[in-house]
Amino acid sequence: MDNTHYISTQLLSFETLEEIISHGKLLALSEEAKVNIQKCRDYLDKKMASHSEPIYGINTGFGSLCNVKISNENLSKLQENLVKSHSCGTGEEVPTEIVKLMLLLKIQSLSYGHSGIQLQTVERLIAFYNNDILPVIYTQGSLGASGDLAPLAHLSLPLLGEGDVYFEGKKVHSAEVLKHFDWKPIVLQSKEGLALLNGTQFMSAYGTHILMKVSKFSYLADLIGSISLEAFDGRIEPFHELIHFIRPHKGQIVTANRIKGFLEGSEIIEQVKTHVQDPYSFRCMPQVHGASKDAFDYVKKVFKTEINSVTDNPNIFIESDQIISGGNFHGQPLALALDFMAIALSELGSISERRTYQLISGLRNLPAFLVDNPGLNSGLMIPQYTAASIASQNKQLATPASIDSIVSSNGQEDHVSMGANAATKALRVLDNLERILAIELMNASQAIEYRRPLQSSDFIEMFLSAYREEVPLIKEDRILHYDIENTVSFLNTFQIENDLLILT
Questions:
Q1: Does domain 4-199 fall into CATH 3.30.460.10?
Q2: Fold classification of 213-499 (topology level)
Q3: Number of C-alpha atoms within 13 angstroms, CB side, residue 87?
Q4: pTM beyond 0.90
Q5: Most buried pick, 153, 160, 283, 373, via CB within 10 A?
Q6: pLDDT, tens digit, for every residue of 272-328?
Q7: Of 190, 291, 203, 189, which Cα lies nearest the Cα of 247?
Q8: Which residues are marked as active site?
Q9: Which backbone phi and psi does 170 adopt, to 5 degrees?
Q10: Helices in 307-403 by DSSP H: which ranges?
Q11: pLDDT tens figures, 434-483
């Protein structure tokens, strides 16, 4: 079986991306892509041989230096200088799995034949991807305006034999890797540096990485919320389909159906209730979790368009014999979507923490802090503090980055998206959500033991049984840091079939 994905004009879907990553597929250019890239390069070479007028970024300086004309003999040096001068990222290193996505998405964008890139340059990026040669890139440095300039400069440095990469588990200088494979550094031609540095692949890779995880987190929020509902002796009526058909938001309907499915056959949910209503954090799970699902669905549409687009500048149009300078590098669509996603993720954490709070409050015949001998034992008192702290941090991180802008490049770039900041903090919100849900599971699984001998549904009992193999019941106080970390590990390794994650 051919374990190769061929880059082409065929729409790159999230399903395809997940397949490429999960199966460790290699990349190769289709014949269509090779032709498109080469035709565009040939056109540009021919154009530059006969054209003396300034064309932005090809025979001019960059940014506010756009009016400085560069002689033809310096066009290659111009592009090399661009990559080096823009390599000024700092802060934490970008996770390698996101760097690999950046490579893939940059290759895809360059393959359409509107960027003027050399074929050998794209082939070298593919070689980096296929051999797990992953440039060291930093999280700070991009305004999300003229593309992700600094991160993409660091992505491009190894083409020149500059900068560091991760290879075979070690951080090494790229020159060593080029020597290992007997590769010569790429000599950049006119426009190539700009084609590499302009683009939204830093933002896109972060967003894509998060989007490939959110369906699982959404599912886990529904599942753990269902266990909390059982533990709190909650009512099933708020999940009745009639309620949701008269307010038919897709995410709301999906959430209600999923929770009903989790609870099917439960003795706890079917027992007679003495209370008339549950608090909102239980009763309104379809409305709150569902709204986040709808937000993720919207964000996915934005990113699907973006990862199948050309995002550098200027763009070359062979058929109309035009080289047009525009703004496809501007990250505004992604910045807004990433902020929206961070808010939606934060809300899943916010409502989860409220369910945890309710469970430890000594209500509904549950002991205070879900432990025998409360007082002598603090039980699950303090994990709720931890969840509250993380939930509050998420609320702070959910403050939109996209409402900010700052002038750069001597006023030439006078409105920026801040999409890169939106991207990095959205990932932090996702990681934080994982811990909030882990803490809720600790509490819900503990609380449900006080409903025995009644049983929950077969599925929930199976899930809890698997969980108990990793995290034992708390009978007396112990160091709960380890319980939190083991719960996170359990959720990470818990496998969910893809068809269960699809919103239908």
A1: no
A2: Fumarase C; Chain A, domain 2 (1.20.200)
A3: 21
A4: yes
A5: 153
A6: 999 999 999 999 999 999 999 999 999 999 999 999 999 999 999 999 999 999 999
A7: 291
A8: 56
A9: -125, 150
A10: 332-359, 381-397
A11: 999 999 999 999 999 999 999 999 999 999 999 999 999 999 999 999 99
